[in-house]
Write a structure and sequence with these properties.
Layout: E1 7-10, E2 21-22, E3 26-28, E4 33-34, E5 39-40, E6 45-46, E7 51-52, E8 57-58, E9 63-64, E10 69-70, E11 75-76, E12 81-82, E13 87-88, E14 93-94, E15 99-100, E16 105-106, E17 111-112, E18 117-118, E19 123-124, E20 129-130, E21 135-136, E22 141-142, E23 147-148, E24 153-154, E25 159-160, E26 165-166, E27 171-172, E28 177-178, E29 183-184, E30 189-190, E31 195-196
Parallel strand pairs: 1-3, 2-5, 3-6, 4-7, 5-8, 6-9, 7-10, 8-11, 9-12, 10-13, 11-14, 12-15, 13-16, 14-17, 15-18, 16-19, 17-20, 18-21, 19-22, 20-23, 21-24, 22-25, 23-26, 24-27, 25-28, 26-29, 27-30, 28-31
């Protein structure tokens, strides 16, 4: 396989599919599974136990830590950190310079904007959009079909329902809950332990 000369370090070389495209100085550790038609760009580091599905693209300078599972058709941007034991499911797009901490789950068809930060233990459901610079605190839950605006900060243990719209530069205090179809307007500051209802 001609691509093998570009690898900085790798074990179990025989496990690499012929269809893989590798950049320069890629590091792949032990017990890593890589699917078909995967592109791994320059200076990527993949730690042991990682599972990567088919048709995945990983941007340059990204680090994927132990036991991460990335499903088919995901796109991971450049200079990202994906914490150990996290799951990124089908058709997820992660922008550049995103930090995803340990044990995060991001479900299918969700988009994470550039420079966003997802704290440990957070669960993000299907078909959500987090715009650039969004922040989710530890153990936050976002259900499905919600939109979180640029530079919005949602703090620890908050629950965001389905079809919720959170505006630009919103701050939502910890242990809050947002009902399905609720709307938080740009720049609002919501106190901790708040309950936001749908007004429709």
């Amino acid at each position: 396989m001609e691509n093998i000369n570009r690898i900085k370090y790798i074990r179990n070389r025989k496990d690499l599919p012929d269809s893989i495209v590798l950049g320069k100085s890629v590091g792949i550790s032990i017990n890593v599974h890589i699917g078909n038609n995967v592109t791994i760009n320059d200076n990527v580091s993949i730690k042991q136990g990682v599972m990567i599905g088919d048709n995945v693209i990983i941007g340059k300078g990204t680090t994927i830590y132990e036991n991460v599972d990335i499903s088919d058709n995901a796109i991971i941007g450049s200079c990202c950190d994906i914490g150990q034991n996290s799951m990124i499911l089908h058709n997820v797009t992660v922008g550049d310079n995103v930090t995803i901490r340990d044990s995060v789950t991001i479900r299918s068809n969700t988009e994470i904007g550039h420079y966003s930060k997802i704290s440990a233990g957070t669960i993000i459901g299907n078909n959500n959009i987090l715009h650039d610079g969004a922040y989710l605190g530890k153990k936050t839950i976002v259900a499905n079909h919600s939109v979180i605006g640029r530079h919005a900060h949602i703090y620890n243990n908050t629950v965001v329902g389905s079809d919720v719209v959170i505006g630009v530069a919103v701050a939502i205090g910890r242990f809050s809950e947002l009902e399905d179809k609720s709307v938080v307007l740009d720049g609002m500051n919501i106190e901790k332990y708040s309950y936001i209802m749908c007004t429709a």
